[in-house]
């Protein structure tokens, strides 16, 4: 069991230093060529792997190009085009509705504010943060996905449980210039080492500062359950 640094700001600084070195090319893994494609990809990525989303979007983006294309597509047709994605029927509805609003209320352009984005169907704060950061170069928050949620709790950076509360907690301790990369580093580390089930603590660059390290630790702080 590792020992986290105190205060939390020091723990965050140490974690960032090590992960920047471990993953120097960390960035978003979704494929897109414009803001609309980014928005569609992020909506599809909820509870689905980026690898699967990229595969589906390769064909999807050749078929549909504008907000009107998506908005006017029959529900059954769009759902069929994304049927290997989790919750594809609901996501098809979200995409059609969001694109109709983009076409009718935003002159066909993906909005560039948190409030306008989160008014679109299927777009919560996490999705909006991704679109703002990578589509508009606007960084006003931290994207909290399942990797960020899991690893920040394991590292005792936060004790909050919901993504919204975790984000607000992280904004107080993560330097603003690192807000965007913080998420990418956590995602890369979560995929490579700190997996949800059976993390590879023996090969983890953060083991000595991680109180959830399972070699002689009792509890996974992400879940609160015993290893």
TrEMBL record:
Stored InterPro entries: DNA_glycosylase, Endonuclease3_FeS-loop_motif, HhH-GPD_domain, HhH_base_excis_C, HhH_motif, Nth
Reactions that this protein is recorded to catalyse: 2'-deoxyribonucleotide-(2'-deoxyribose 5'-phosphate)-2'-deoxyribonucleotide-DNA = a 3'-end 2'-deoxyribonucleotide-(2,3-dehydro-2,3-deoxyribose 5'-phosphate)-DNA + a 5'-end 5'-phospho-2'-deoxyribonucleoside-DNA + H(+); Hydrolyzes mismatched double-stranded DNA and polynucleotides, releasing free thymine
EC number of the protein: 4.2.99.18
GO biological process: base-excision repair, AP site formation
Free-text comment on the cofactor: Binds 1 [4Fe-4S] cluster.
Enzyme kind, highest EC tier: lyase
Record-annotated HhH-GPD domain positions: 44-192
SMART domains: ENDO3c
Keyword terms of this UniProt record: 4Fe-4S, DNA damage, DNA repair, DNA-binding, Endonuclease, Glycosidase, Hydrolase, Iron, Iron-sulfur, Lyase, Metal-binding, Nuclease
Top-level taxonomic group: Archaea
Amino acids binding [4Fe-4S] cluster: 194, 201, 204, 210
GO molecular function list: 4 iron, 4 sulfur cluster binding; class I DNA-(apurinic or apyrimidinic site) endonuclease activity; DNA binding; G/T mismatch-specific thymine-DNA glycosylase activity; metal ion binding
Cofactors named for this entry: [4Fe-4S] cluster
UniProt key word DNA repair: yes
PANTHER family: A/G-SPECIFIC ADENINE GLYCOSYLASE/ENDONUCLEASE III, ENDONUCLEASE III
Family per record: Belongs to the Nth/MutY family.
General function of this protein: DNA repair enzyme that has both DNA N-glycosylase activity and AP-lyase activity. The DNA N-glycosylase activity releases various damaged pyrimidines from DNA by cleaving the N-glycosidic bond, leaving an AP (apurinic/apyrimidinic) site. The AP-lyase activity cleaves the phosphodiester bond 3' to the AP site by a beta-elimination, leaving a 3'-terminal unsaturated sugar and a product with a terminal 5'-phosphate.
Protein name in UniProt: Endonuclease III
């Amino acid at each position: 069991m590792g020992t986290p640094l105190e205060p939390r700001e020091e723990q965050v600084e140490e974690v960032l230093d090590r992960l920047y070195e471990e993953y120097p090319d960390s960035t978003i893994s979704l494929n897109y060529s414009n803001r609309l494609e980014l928005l569609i990809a992020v909506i599809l990525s909820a509870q689905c792997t980026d690898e699967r989303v990229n595969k589906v979007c390769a064909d999807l983006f050749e078929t549909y190009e504008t907000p009107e294309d998506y908005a006017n597509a029959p529900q059954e047709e769009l759902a069929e085009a994304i049927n290997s994605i989790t919750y594809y029927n609901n996501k098809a509805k979200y995409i059609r509705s969001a694109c109709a609003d983009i076409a009718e209320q935003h002159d066909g352009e993906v909005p560039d504010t948190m409030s306008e984005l989160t008014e679109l169907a299927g777009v919560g704060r996490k999705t909006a943060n991704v679109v703002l950061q990578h589509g508009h170069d606007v960084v006003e928050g931290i994207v909290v996905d399942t990797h960020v949620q899991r690893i920040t709790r394991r590292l005792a950076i936060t004790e909050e449980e919901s993504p919204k509360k975790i984000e607000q907690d992280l904004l107080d301790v993560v330097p603003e210039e690192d807000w965007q990369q913080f998420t990418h580093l956590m995602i890369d580390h979560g995929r490579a080492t700190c997996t949800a089930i059976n993390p590879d603590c023996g090969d983890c660059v953060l083991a000595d500062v991680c109180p959830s390290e399972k070699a002689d630790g009792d509890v996974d702080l992400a879940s609160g359950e015993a290893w």
